[in-house]
Structures
1.
Amino acid sequence: MPDPTPDPLIVAPNLKRRLSGVTATVVRLIPVQARMIAIAATGPGLPPELPHIPLTRAATIPRDRWRVWHARRNTEMALGLILRHVLRRRYRLLFTSAAQRRHTGFTRWLIRQQDALVATSPQAASYLERPAQVILHGVDTQVFQPAPDRAALRRELGLDPDALLIGCFGRIRAQKGIDLLVQAGLDLLPDRPRAQILMTGRITQDQQGFADELKARIAQAGLQDRIRFLGELPWDQVVRHYQALDLFAAPARWEGFGLTPLEAMACGVPTVAARVGAYETLIRDGQTGSLIAPGDAPALTAALARWLDDDAARAQAGADARAHVTANHAIEGEAQALVDLYRRMLA
């Protein structure tokens, strides 16, 4: 693999081969940050066009200057400690935390060894035992933007151009509230013949029974052609499916940060989401979508019905959502805040 960043000041590890929210963060941030500072990712499963160095290179990088090791997982924090204290590489250690729960003892120990901390929301910061800079995630508003011709896009994707499409993207699991959305669909769709629900994301082996039970309920109601699981899609296809939607649902029972509502809103799609993760910070209730209590299936059903049944309000909310993300949550702001922190750590 060619090495477009031969001597990075910042190394961003990604020690997970499959696509995850953390991996998506690395993939979308680094190209923007690379325009501001010498940065490279390291680890498996990353796109070939991303500035990248092999793990062996990260472990043998010259000790001529300080660099930043920017971890986002426990394994990456642990590797950073090995690189600095065992292999004597000159890394300043930075950890970004999105978790909104009490950390395990081991994680708390790892966090105490870091030189600086970032939290992706005020809620995540409250679970850290040390001060952290809050830097909200952003999205690339040039990638995530409304489709110029949504009907044509739907035809290309094999979707009904005249449908009212609700989307929910992410792994298929109870934590994401997929069962709540299915129940809402079973209640709403019989009286709304244009409405459909599309779900994308991987079904892991431990969640297969959960998914099979939901599919059986859908089939029993005769709605298998209108509530569909599309499986894990390539990243560019996920973006195009966002652009094809009328409404997005994020009914998670808990969430670290939760980037999917931002991605949907950047595409001009209003979002119904639970009050978990950073959703209350991202969504303007009643203007760019709706916020509901986590686990509240009737509230989810009512909120979806409100937007499905009011075409004018839904269109206005989509326009407001796009404007809100562009003004407040563009990825350039996140990238610049992190680069400013890197420079302070290197000074």
2.
Amino acid sequence: MAFVRTFFKDMDPSEMGFTYSHEHIVCVPPYWSERQEDDLLLDSRVKSQKDVEDFKENGGQTIVDATAVDYGRRVEDVAEISRETGIHIIGTAGFNKSFLWKADLKPTLKSLVGDYRTYGEWIENASINRLAEFVIREVEEGLEGSAYRGGQVKFGTGYNTISPLEEKTIRAVARAHLETGAPVHSHTEAGTMALEQIEILREEGVNIEYLSIGHMDRNLDPYMHQKVAETGAFLSFDGIGKVKYAPESARIEAILQLVDKGFEDQILVSGDTARKSYYKHYGYGLGLEYIIKKWVPRFKEEADTKGYDGDKLVRKIFVDNPQRCFAFKK
């Protein structure tokens, strides 16, 4: 039987309701902390929780927190937010991308992975299978030794390249997926290297229908989107609200083009809120309420105007598709 793994329970996918498929709630990435990049430090449980409460007040029910071990997860803080708000939160096992691995390894991880100085040193010296064992442990036992188990496994790659260490983590995450049945998520830098990631996963025997690929709206190329969709992967349009990268009209058009081509069952939408300046209650931005409160009505209006059923597409993208995407396949 399919199930979705949240911080507090394994549940039937039908319990997810309206879902954001890629967010960051509380995290202090070592790489950015060492460089004093304050905007990239989501360091207040109280402020982040207020944004989660806004999401709930507007009808939201589940958030996928895509923060991996090398991006400064605050597992206990996120669990407390889930407990206090009642929002289902799915945690993430696995890794991000190689430039972040220059940062010092979190001291609490040394007892779990060995006495390495940086994330890069750990990944370089560990075998693929040892890295896979770490990811499996985070899914089956708990994130960073906590009681809260991961509900998806993740890897990432750089801009127009996949480094040798990134390929190593792709293979480790693939093996962890095959062992646990956890859904797979990938970070692409500016929407590049998705097809190359898929080829490596195929070499490891992964069914690509169990994969969601992040940041597809950072590369608004209809040809590339179609080629990715043809593999069976989910495409995550997770930059909503970030008009510095593209106008919302372009994202909506790209989504509707995929619908036209018959890929409406493979579309996810979220905000990837990984900066203080994206959050409302840090005193800056649009906040977690933006998509559900403002973007969804606009999307419905544009879809209806162009002859689609906007309500049906919203349910598909935010309810039906996440239920399939984030279900364990064992």
3.
Amino acid sequence: MAGVSKCLKYSMFIFNFLFWVCGCVILGISIWLRVSSDAQKKYDIQGSSMLTAVDVMIAVGSIIMVLGFFGCCGAIKESRCLLLLFFIGLLLILLLQITAGILGAVYKPQIEKNINETLQTIIPINQQSKDLQQAIEVIQEENKCCGLLKGLSDWGGVTPESCRCTKVTETCNGSTYKQTCSSVFVDFFKKSLLIIIGIAFGLAVVELIGLGFSMALYCQIGSK
């Protein structure tokens, strides 16, 4: 009977350790996208569609960490049960990631339209809650923009301090900022979506290698 290849065994262990590290990185980035103060302001205004995608990536990162642990233990202990659990779990994650990546790619061209539709529902801004108004003012001040879609008129006749500027420049007409904040939201969510798509498809290549390693080791252990 053929023995288990030491090279394959330890290659599988090293791969799964790196896979576990990848899970930690995905989890860390996803949590940052979820809880960073800048992101939170935009999520509060735009809605929960992107927030759901980030929550999914948090779950994926957590599961990958668990699968990486199973793979490491399965390789070192030569456990067919753990290797099979690793293979099945990794295959399911791969299918979910490919689906998420495809949906993200399909959703990307619609981001600007969906964001503008959402922003339209909170105009005039001065009729919204104080917390929401303050969040918009912070975004206006940080990004030197005024209003959401049409400019100062989005505030319903009120001119907040965050819209005011004095020097005539490309962004200022001498009294208020010219640029609306819709482009700020569009750029932010496009960048966030690109990160999610990149993680989904980039990790898919790594996972295919993992599937090959785990099945080869599983078969070798079974043939001992």
4.
Amino acid sequence: MSLRLGDIAPNFVAETTEGKINFHEYLGDGWGVLFSHPADYTPVCTTELGAVAKLKSEFDKRNVKVLALSVDGLADHKEWIKDINETQNTTVNFPLIADEDRKVAELYDMIHPNASEKATVRSVFVIGNDKKIKLIITYPASTGRNFEELLRVIDSLQLTAYHSVATPADWKYGEDVVIVPSVADADIPAKFPKGHTRIKPYLRTTPQPNI
């Protein structure tokens, strides 16, 4: 059965470039991003892993641990990392899961049905600190992911998890947010002391409450 938003992220034990990990233990009380790659030594993946390495401090600020996965082995991973560091002018600073038996790829339905049974699709899973899946995105193998967008989504997920708000189209951290419909007009002043704007009965905005 395919995983859905709100499902508990399946736990697993796997070898990585930073040693054996138990996924749930590795995440601890933090958030996680698990993202897969079709294979080692592929051009788009090389740029993606370099991009994530450069953004590692941004993920750290959000208490998010990142893990990459492909169905290649540790030896290939470690040699490929040398290429990534060289060509992307960075240092890979997060674990790459070696999934030669496809255990994790199959657990997360990452095997591309119309390509090779050994090639994972470009899947992204964001996992909350409750171990539930908050976001699933799947890209085609030909399209590199936008990790700045992933950080934007994580900002929204973390904000809306703790406040009665949603984020509008193209929202960025620091901009106004939308008050969810379940909050009555009478309760807004107490919940949102920064004030609010009533555009329509169902569309009410307020400054971001956690800054």
